[in-house]
Each structure stands twice: as structure tokens, then as C-alpha cells.
Amino acid sequence: MGTGRLENKVALVTGAASGFGRGIAERFAREGCSVVINDIARESGAAVAAGIRAAGGVAHFAFGDVSKSNEVRGMLDAALSQFGKLDIVVNNAGTTHRNQPLLGVGEAEFDRIYAVNVKSIYLTAIHVVPHFRRQRSGCFINIASTAAIRPRPGLTWYNGSKGAAIVTSRSMAAELAPHNIRVNVINPVAGETGLLAEFMGGDTPELRAKFIATIPLGRLSLPADIASAAVFLASDEAAFITGASLEVDGGRCV
User: Fold this and answer.
1) What's the pTM?
2) Does the residue 136 lie in any domain?
């Protein structure tokens, strides 16, 4: 595919069957990266990988639940068996509860949100950091949310999980820097993904207009917006950037 900004790198992107994850994975591939596509949606995840290969890129689908330790280990194993190394982990897989009063969210749903949004960072660290230490380099990009920076009513437990993701990432960055392992965060505003209706409590033209009115640049985020930020943070151009938390939000958090 020619020389790209991520040439000769290997990345794992979780939740890459759709939305931001798919956009990141496809863009990484266009930049010369070999990509492990992870998702619990087997058919659509495999289709994203096949689409990347059809476009001349390099991709492999690895089914797995980011909240289960042995399945996260399987994602690392897939990268090493397919591509011989792993340089970049994008913790993109995420879930939420429907926009509603905080007392309406059940305990099982709360547990699932923290398992997917926070425990996944723990598990990728447990399994991947030893590999990154051995090669004396590595990069984590954790997709959090503007919900952590400017929390609003209705998404309280989701907001908290993304706040945990940011603080965890910054602490990881401080602790892992001596090993040349970088950890950064991207905070998207809500975009054209499968979670949009949950964030807004529905999806009507009226709800969209009301939400977009809170974004100074006047539109929702697109997977391409998040992918552009991720390419930069994963590239050697960002070699001196760690512990950063980058809002990609059209001004929402101002």
C-alpha cells in the first residue's frame, strides 16, 4: 500500500467491527500498519478484516471479549502468530447504558460497563506490557469520552467509567515511561456509531439537533476524525507524547 505513517507496525484494535474502531483499523491499514481486528461480532469483524485485505492492506480477525482475560491473551497470541510482534494497542471497545436517571441502571449493566470500559485496560496491560517491555517500545491508545471531561446527567455510570479510563491511562503513562511505553487517550464526542441512540436516549432529528447544538463546530464526530488522531498518537511523530488526553469533540468541552 506504499509508505505510510505506520509502516512496519502491528496494531490490535478492539471493538473494530464497526464505528470508531472500524474507522481506526481501516485508516491504520492504509498507513501501512498490519492490523488485528478484534470484536465480539464475529461476522462483521471478519468482514472488516476481509475488506482491508481486499483494499490491499494486511489484517487478521481475532474474536474475543475484552473483559475476559484468556480472550485478551488470545488477541496478543493472534498478533504474534500472524505478524510476529505487536506495537500498538487501541482499547476502543466500549459500551454504555441508555441515557436515564442514575437509579434506573441495574447492577448487572453497571458491572458490564466497567468490565468493558475499564477492566479491558487492565487486561490488555497485564498481557501486553510484558511484551512491550521485552521489545523496549509500545503504545497504548485508550478511547475514553468527552463524558469524562464534561459529564452531564443521564449517563452517570458511563461517565464514571470513562473518567476511570483517563486516570488509569495517565498513571500507566507515568509508570511505563521508563520502558519506552507510551499511553495516551482520545476523548471523542458522540458520533455516528451504534451507541449514539443510547447516549441521546433515542435517535430522532429533534434529539440530534438538540445534541449538535452543544457542539461548537456544529456536527457529530465521524470515525475519520478519531482515526486521524489515533494515527498521529500511534506514529513516531508522537514519540514524545505520553499521558496526553486529547479531545476530538468539535469544541464540546470548551
Assistant:
1) 0.97
2) yes
